[in-house]
């Protein structure tokens, strides 16, 4: 498995023409932009966890039936410091870095102090966010990095703390139809309080229609929710939205702030300071977007760990939301690089299968309802919400499917009733081996798989003018455990789940995490000189690529985990 996880990947700096088999739909014009860890060793030093690896951006530019591939490491401060020192000198969540042993005692003491209240990494390896006219590589710290989506060049570094008081932030923001961004982060012990902060970034700077204005400067706090514990806030990777509400799960997978403050001195990573409290509850917070306050009823469910919300919507007086849930935190533990060896597929087993769970939360609780009565009157789900004493409601989900992760949906249905989920299928092993289309209405599924192939997160791109929810294509970057098989971009018909085309590239492609598709708003005359494939070398015709003029419309991209009204 080192060929997949542990070995550093090579950049493909110039556009490389892919070998296309099948037929790419003529309307599919744009760039699939993805992010994930690509470098796991620097000099003689190694990262402990796969999620710590240095960010490697890559893209597939699709135009007129042709595909060009390129990749480039994010030139973060973290990357530059590590490369200059030829070893890991910036700490990641699962790997604590230490100062040069030749430094004097004062330098060492300062390093200890700086790690007590850590200045986190800007190694933004998880996702890509669109903000106004710009695109940013994101991670779960307070830093994001602006990037050029065409060249993959790294631009300025942005610190959320200049605009909103958060130490951590999710990589799965939501977007409304106007392009406004809603995200949330954790503010640790700020003025004696630890809280979860939801903040809104406008699509454009207020009062200005000129390009180049930074909307981040006009970020505003949307809502704050006090953490149930000052020094043990919940970890969360995403959240949900409907047209009128926001869904946040305060789960018993917690960060121990005191342990984190002393981790550097104790010689342990920050990740070791995360604890799953299996005796605790998962609290469900429903925030009214109009009042910007949580509804007063206290909703909770059994302990679980959720990384990805799928979608949420309102029906018959309830908020229904779908999540991928685990019964423990074993997923994170499995991705320590020491576990990612040649026996990984056979021996690495989750202690709980990721399950698609649907919850129903009643928005208005009848005070006269009997204790123990089910408050959910929605006929489309078997999920229940049982009234208890003291204004508490115990929510039990409907289990829709077992064995899926990395969910995506048709973006137009975010926050609305929907039917289809596109995901990677996984069972007891976290290795994705199939792409899944799940119908939440009929409870049926379609699948794509191929021997020795590992698919990345499947991304849905709708056909222009489509009326059906599944009228479009699925894009997934596929890598292979067979060294003789080239990686490729897979294009599936989203309705039938049959293969339309694949674009194979002779490159050292990495297994990525998340990303988005940027449709073209028209092609400009910027010329690029692509690297030649062997097929080009044997041709008498020179190759050339006209670079896309990437769309900068208000909603001119396809992303996951989106919302409707912020």
TrEMBL record:
- InterPro entries per the UniProt record, alphabetical: Carotenoid_Oase
Q: Which GO terms describe its molecular function?
A: metal ion binding; oxidoreductase activity, acting on single donors with incorporation of molecular oxygen, incorporation of two atoms of oxygen
Q: Which UniProt keywords apply?
A: Iron, Metal-binding
Q: Signal peptide span per the entry? A: none
| Cofactor annotation remark | Binds 1 Fe(2+) ion per subunit.
Q: Where does Fe cation bind?
A: 172, 237, 308, 514
Renumbered to this chain, region (Disordered) spans 529-566
Instruction: Write down the required cofactor(s).
Output: Fe(2+)
Q: Which family does it belong to?
A: Belongs to the carotenoid oxygenase family.
Spell out the PANTHER family in the cross-references.
BETA,BETA-CAROTENE 15,15'-DIOXYGENASE, BETA-CAROTENE DIOXYGENASE
Q: What is this protein called?
A: Beta-carotene 15,15'-monooxygenase
- Organism of this sequence: Rattus norvegicus (Rat)
Taxonomy, top ranks, is: Eukaryota, Metazoa, Chordata, Craniata, Vertebrata
């Amino acid at each position: 498995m080192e060929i997949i996880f542990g070995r550093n990947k090579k950049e493909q700096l110039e556009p490389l023409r892919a070998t296309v088999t099948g037929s790419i739909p003529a309307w599919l014009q744009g760039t699939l932009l993805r992010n994930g860890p690509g470098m796991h060793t620097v000099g003689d030093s190694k990262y402990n966890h796969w999620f710590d690896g240095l960010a490697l951006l890559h893209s597939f530019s699709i135009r007129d039936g042709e595909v060009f591939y390129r990749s480039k490491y994010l030139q973060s401060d973290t990357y530059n410091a590590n490369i200059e020192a030829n070893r890991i000198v910036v700490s990641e969540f699962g790997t604590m870095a230490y100062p040069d042993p030749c430094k004097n005692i004062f330098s060492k003491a300062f390093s200890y102090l700086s790690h007590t209240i850590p200045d986190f990494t800007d190694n933004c390896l998880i996702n890509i966010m669109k903000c106004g006219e710009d695109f940013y590589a994101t991670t779960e710290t307070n830093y994001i990095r602006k990037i050029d989506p065409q060249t993959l060049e790294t631009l300025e570094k942005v610190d959320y703390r200049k605009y909103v008081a958060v130490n951590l932030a999710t990589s799965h923001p939501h977007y409304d139809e106007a392009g406004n961004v809603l995200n949330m982060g954790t503010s640790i012990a700020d003025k004696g309080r630890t809280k979860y902060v939801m903040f809104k970034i406008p699509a454009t700077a207020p009062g200005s229609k000129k390009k180049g204005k930074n909307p981040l400067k006009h970020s505003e706090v949307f809502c704050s929710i006090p953490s149930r514990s000052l020094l043990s806030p919940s970890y969360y990777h995403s959240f949900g939205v409907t047209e009128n509400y926001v869904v946040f799960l305060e789960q018993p997978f917690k960060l121990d702030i005191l342990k984190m403050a002393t981790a550097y001195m104790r010689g342990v990573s920050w990740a070791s300071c995360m604890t799953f409290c299996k005796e605790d509850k998962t609290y469900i917070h429903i925030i009214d977007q109009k009042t910007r306050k949580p509804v007063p009823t206290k909703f909770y469910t059994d302990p679980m760990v959720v990384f990805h919300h799928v979608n949420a919507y309102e029906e018959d007086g309830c908020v229904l939301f779908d999540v991928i849930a685990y019964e423990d935190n074993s997923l994170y533990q499995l991705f320590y690089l020491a576990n990612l060896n040649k026996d990984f597929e056979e021996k690495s087993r989750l202690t709980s299968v990721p399950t698609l769970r649907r919850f129903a939360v009643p928005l208005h609780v009848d005070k006269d309802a009997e204790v123990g009565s089910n408050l959910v009157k929605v006929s489309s789900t078997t999920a229940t919400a049982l009234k208890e004493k003291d204004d508490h409601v115990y929510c039990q989900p409907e289990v829709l499917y077992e064995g899926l992760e990395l969910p995506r949906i048709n973006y137009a249905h975010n926050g609305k009733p929907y039917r289809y989920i596109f995901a990677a299928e996984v069972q007891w092993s976290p290795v994705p081996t199939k792409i899944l289309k799940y119908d939440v209405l009929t409870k049926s599924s379609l699948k794509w798989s191929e021997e020795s192939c590992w698919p990345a997160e499947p991304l849905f791109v709708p056909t222009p003018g489509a009326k059906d929810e599944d009228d479009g294509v699925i894009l997934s970057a596929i890598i292979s455990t067979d060294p003789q098989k080239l990686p490729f971009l897979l294009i599936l018909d989203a309705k039938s789940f049959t293969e339309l085309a694949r674009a194979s590239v002779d490159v050292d492609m990495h297994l990525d995490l998340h990303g988005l598709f940027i449709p073209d708003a028209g092609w400009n005359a910027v010329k690029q000189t692509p690297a030649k494939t062997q097929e080009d070398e044997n041709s008498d015709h020179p190759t050339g690529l006209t670079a896309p003029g990437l769309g900068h419309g208000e909603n001119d991209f396809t992303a996951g985990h989106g919302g409707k009204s912020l």
